[in-house]
Amino acid sequence: MGEDVEHSVRGLGLTSLCMQEKKLVSGVSAAVEAILAQFSSSRTIVQKALSGDSAINPSLGRLVLQCLCPALHNLLTDGLKPHQSDLIAGRRPNSAWSLVQATTRTPKTQALFNLQIRVGELPQLRHSKQRFNAFLLGLLTKLLDFWLSHLQSCSVLEACYHPTSFMRLSLTTCWPLFEELLLVLQPLSLLTFNLDLLFQHHHL
């Protein structure tokens, strides 16, 4: 069954099968361009640094939460199975936040694990999507592309995603789109962000 699905996926080709996935990457690209436009209006290094501080420039915080976070949420929940079976916990719901928890437990992801724990301990964030958004705010301290690359390499992909999901296809047919996604996000790593993890709670 799995081989038949993989064969049909390869047979369809990038053009027909990855059109929806291409739209998901384009959504992220549009959000990144909007964020870069915010920074480009700053002329000095100091101004650029202050532009990335959500306490000084709340419009940037809103832009990240209303554009980048939804675009990445759509991409990472594309083809996500509604539930996952666990030998200990049994059947439990899948979400973008559960992906975060499942992919930040190894020693090589200590910085990601620390951020996940910080977000998880914030009582103001009661819903998984709020926690996912806060995690993304924290990742904009130059960890976003690292987490996405790590996520792609994790063994949980098969358990969490359907074969036609963006993340599963990024391993085979739609690999170029995943590379494009990383290139799209790369300019953000050159900017200085200081985003309040509770920005959504305080401002939205």
UniProtKB/TrEMBL annotation:
> What Pfam families does the entry give?
RUN
Task: Specify the RUN domain's residue ranges.
Answer: 59-200
Gene3D superfamilies documented for this protein: 1.20.58.900
**InterPro entries the UniProt entry points to:** Run_dom (IPR004012), Run_dom_sf (IPR037213), RUSC1_2 (IPR047343)
State the PROSITE patterns in the record. Answer: RUN
Query: Can you supply one Gene Ontology CC term for this chain's record?
Result: cytoplasmic vesicle
Q: Which PANTHER family match?
A: AP-4 COMPLEX ACCESSORY SUBUNIT RUSC1, RUN AND SH3 DOMAIN CONTAINING
Name of this protein: RUN and SH3 domain containing 1
